[in-house]
Design the sequence.
């Protein structure tokens, strides 16, 4: 037990922290209750699954999660991925959707543990921040369209972004206007509260107002549907075994849920860590998220991740430790045990309003504007992430987003920056000739800097740049030294290219050397024999050593070409 993060954090617990932790926990429960009820509706799941996912998973993360202040819970973006996964698993999954959703949460938890053991925390980087900003904006638009039925009382069967709107126009005569008025009124209330009183839990206010109206007025007589009965008992552990579902497809679907939820969760964790001074270890967060999702799956819940709204409440209320999570879990457990009679009165229109408002919050207009100002390329990738989620569906959108990120990395790495270095009169060190007009090359010595790894997909480009440099070298050049200080990786294709360059230079009577070679590239070049062909006398720890050796060897013949 002493190794649990929760216990190690409590070893220095101060009495002064108890009150802010308890108050934060109660506030987290108040904010989390409406979203816990609303978010499962995105995937067509019963509201109690969201409640169950807000009890035991919080305690599991408190025990195993590394952060003192991060709060987990259901997430709108994760739930729309869940909806797509459930749809992709076929009609049998829909018939047993509760067990299927719980099984997905369980598998997500196991995948998190496996990824942590394999040190795969870097998977979060597959969805870069620009891609994730755009992807979440696309998901938000999908969520907004998905609330048409709850806000109008019209059964919408079409998928996508435009077709549901077209279907609504065709069914305009079926709109239940009292439902629409209630839903839009609550939506406006939520947006006004978010703008005017950001510290007030708007979703809780909307739930209280809607429930009070339902208690005072016979809303069903106006055609306003309620969410219906919610089980009044706490969940018990049970291994979810959905019937008629291919487990291979389920694992793939869980992997898609993991990628999006963990990507979004790590962004949330890092954002709040900047404010609280904590350090985020992605592999340790995988353990915390894994424990939370395992608890969700075993206790009839849905996948969870870091919740930005709940974490924001915890930070703003001054929560110090994960005791706040435990208090929130206990408070929500009491709500499930004793308040289900009131909760079942909540109109579906209220859930639609909460989800629509949450979707608006997922569209980070300011972040998109910053990307536009600072990097048009990254803004383009945000648009790719957005269009992927909208145009290809969520699951294919994940693939599009990841593919776009990898393509971006390949494009950036395919043309590494390079420069020729020289001296600045009266200064130490070496400077890029194109950047510093006062810098001059050392007569007879050319120093070529490559700022990036040398790998198969960029070798041809670097070789062309190398050959272009050779064409411009002064006739008196006797040495050419490659500054490899920024070359952290080299593969066998690059080694063969360096062999070719060494031979080409030797044929021209120019010796080829390498400076500041890192240990991993050095080991590979030793195995390929490249370093032996270059010669130990032409390998230097740094550029100063190379310059000193050149001065000592000026006038000597260049290294002979290899036979």
Sequence:
């Amino acid at each position: 037990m002493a190794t649990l993060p929760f216990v190690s954090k409590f070893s220095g617990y101060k009495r002064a922290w108890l009150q802010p932790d308890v108050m934060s926990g109660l506030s987290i429960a108040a904010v989390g209750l409406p979203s816990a009820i609303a978010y499962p509706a995105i995937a067509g799941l019963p509201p109690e699954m969201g409640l169950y996912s807000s009890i035991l998973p919080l305690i599991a993360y408190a025990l195993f999660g590394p952060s003192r202040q991060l709060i987990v819970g259901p997430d709108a973006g994760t739930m729309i991925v869940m909806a797509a996964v459930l749809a992709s698993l076929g009609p049998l999954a829909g018939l047993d959707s509760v067990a299927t959703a719980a099984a997905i949460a369980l598998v997500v938890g196991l995948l998190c543990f496996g990824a942590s053991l394999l040190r795969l925390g870097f998977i979060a980087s597959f969805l870069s921040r620009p891609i994730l900003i755009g992807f979440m904006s696309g998901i938000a638009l999908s969520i907004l369209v998905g609330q048409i039925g709850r806000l109008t009382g019209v059964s919408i069967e079409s998928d996508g972004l435009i077709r549901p709107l077209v279907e609504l126009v065709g069914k305009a005569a079926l709109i239940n206007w009292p439902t629409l008025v209630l839903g839009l009124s609550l939506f406006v209330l939520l947006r006004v509260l978010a703008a005017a009183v950001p510290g007030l839990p708007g979703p809780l206010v909307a739930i209280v107002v809607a429930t009070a109206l339902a208690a005072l007025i016979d809303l069903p007589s106006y055609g306003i549907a309620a969410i219906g009965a919610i089980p009044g008992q706490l969940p018990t552990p049970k291994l979810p075994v959905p019937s008629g579902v291919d487990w291979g497809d389920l694992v793939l679907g869980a992997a898609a849920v993991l990628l999006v939820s963990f990507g979004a969760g790590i962004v949330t964790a890092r954002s709040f860590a900047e404010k609280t001074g904590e350090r985020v270890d992605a592999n340790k967060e995988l353990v915390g998220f894994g424990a939370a999702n395992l608890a969700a799956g075993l206790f009839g819940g849905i996948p969870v991740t870091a919740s930005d709204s709940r974490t924001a409440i915890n930070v703003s209320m001054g929560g110090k430790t994960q005791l706040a999570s435990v208090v929130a879990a206990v408070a929500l457990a009491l709500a499930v045990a004793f308040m289900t009679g009131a909760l079942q009165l909540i109109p579906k229109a209220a859930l639609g309003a909460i989800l629509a408002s949450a979707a608006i919050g997922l569209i980070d207009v300011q972040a998109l504007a910053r990307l536009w100002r600072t990097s048009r390329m990254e803004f383009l990738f945000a648009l790719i992430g957005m269009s992927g989620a909208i145009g290809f569906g969520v699951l294919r959108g994940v693939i599009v987003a990841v593919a776009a990120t990898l393509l971006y990395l390949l494009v950036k790495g395919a043309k590494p920056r390079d420069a020729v270095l020289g001296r600045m009169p009266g200064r130490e060190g070496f400077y890029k000739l194109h950047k510093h007009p006062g810098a001059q090359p050392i007569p007879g010595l050319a120093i070529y800097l490559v700022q990036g790894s040398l790998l198969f997909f960029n070798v041809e480009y670097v070789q062309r740049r190398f050959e272009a440099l050779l064409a411009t070298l002064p006739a008196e050049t006797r040495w050419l030294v490659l500054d490899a200080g920024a070359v952290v990786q080299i593969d066998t294709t690059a080694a063969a290219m360096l062999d070719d360059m060494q031979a080409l230079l030797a044929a021209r009577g120019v010796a080829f050397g390498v400076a500041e070679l890192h240990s991993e590239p050095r080991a590979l070049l030793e195995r390929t024999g490249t370093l032996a062909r270059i010669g130990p006398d032409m390998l230097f720890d740094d550029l100063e050593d190379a310059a000193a050796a050149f001065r000592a060897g000026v006038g000597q013949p260049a290294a002979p070409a290899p036979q």
